[in-house]
Amino acid sequence: MHSFAYRLNTLLTFSLLLLAVLFGAASFLDAFNSPLSASSSHVQASAQVLKVNRFRRQLNGADEVSLTFNVSLDVQPLFTWNTKQVFVFLAAEYETPKNALNQISLWDHIILDKDQAKFQTKVTTKYPLIDQGSNLRGRKVDLILHWHVMPKTGRMIRDKLHLSDFHLPEAYT
Amino acid sequence: MDWQGQKGAEIVMQIMLVVFAIAGLGTGYAIGSFPTMMLTYAGGVVLTALITVPNWPFFNRHPLKWLDPSEEERHPKPQVNVAAASKKKASKHK
């Protein structure tokens, strides 16, 4: 502590240590702010398939579907003071003889602000639903909403909610 | 900065930083704003730096009182030291 540089060094080292402690505390307090199961019970969401835009078999033999659906979301309870953004994606999940679980993201969205965390919208599939093979005719497909709560500091919270299910048509369009 | 000043500066630095960290966390959590916490703490760090890093006059209130050089002449070093030194030399020569 005898010279300017030593005092500056001490100050920076100690202040950075405390900064790390602050971030740890913020992450810890977050657990109280939104219960660890910041979960399914708090999030309101629904999705209905309105229309099958296209349902065809690709040249390589894989089924491809394009859908239009209604999404209504309310993930405001997920936002705390330590939340940077919430990533939500709607996944189609179904079972085929080959795979116990097929999981395909149809639509996703990044919510940056609590004010934008409640909305209703009509969307077409952002990414086409393409099967590994030709198993989609008449298949029951579950629509699952997944979300990743990304905090400013601390661990990422992931959770999901089953929204609805529907049956694909028996014939290609 | 004298010895007392260095001790004081270190204590003041640590107390101020901890206080500002707690204050920042408290206000940030109460308002629910992460930037508020960061700004409060950053302000505290800057203020602490201004107070404790430069060599302010109030850190120099306890200068060391060195003996006057003439004192040394009046109190020569005890001869024992010389004897010990010569002993060492003798053992080395063996």
Automatic annotation (TrEMBL), chain A:
Keyword Endoplasmic reticulum: yes
Compartments, record wording: Endoplasmic reticulum membrane
Record membrane topology: Single-pass type II membrane protein
Swiss-Prot/TrEMBL GO biological process terms: protein targeting to ER; signal peptide processing
Secretion signal, residue range per the UniProt entry: none
Keywords: Endoplasmic reticulum, Membrane, Signal-anchor, Transmembrane, Transmembrane helix
Taxonomic superkingdom: Eukaryota
Main location: endoplasmic reticulum
Role: Essential component of the signal peptidase complex (SPC) which catalyzes the cleavage of N-terminal signal sequences from nascent proteins as they are translocated into the lumen of the endoplasmic reticulum. Essential for the SPC catalytic activity, possibly by stabilizing and positioning the active center of the complex close to the lumenal surface.
Protein name: Signal peptidase complex subunit 3
Native source species: Musa balbisiana (Banana)
TrEMBL record, chain B:
GO terms classed as biological process: protein targeting to ER; signal peptide processing
Similarity comment text for this entry: Belongs to the SPCS1 family.
Region (Disordered): 70-94
InterPro entries: Spc1/SPCS1 (IPR009542)
Function: Component of the signal peptidase complex (SPC) which catalyzes the cleavage of N-terminal signal sequences from nascent proteins as they are translocated into the lumen of the endoplasmic reticulum. Dispensable for SPC enzymatic activity.
Keywords, ordered alphabetically: Endoplasmic reticulum, Membrane, Transmembrane, Transmembrane helix
Transmembrane segments: 12-32, 38-59
Domain of life: Eukaryota
Keyword Cell wall biogenesis/degradation set for record: no
GO cellular component labels: signal peptidase complex
Entry's localization field: Endoplasmic reticulum membrane
Membrane topology: Multi-pass membrane protein
Protein name: Signal peptidase complex subunit 1
Coiled coil: none
Organism the protein comes from: Musa balbisiana (Banana)
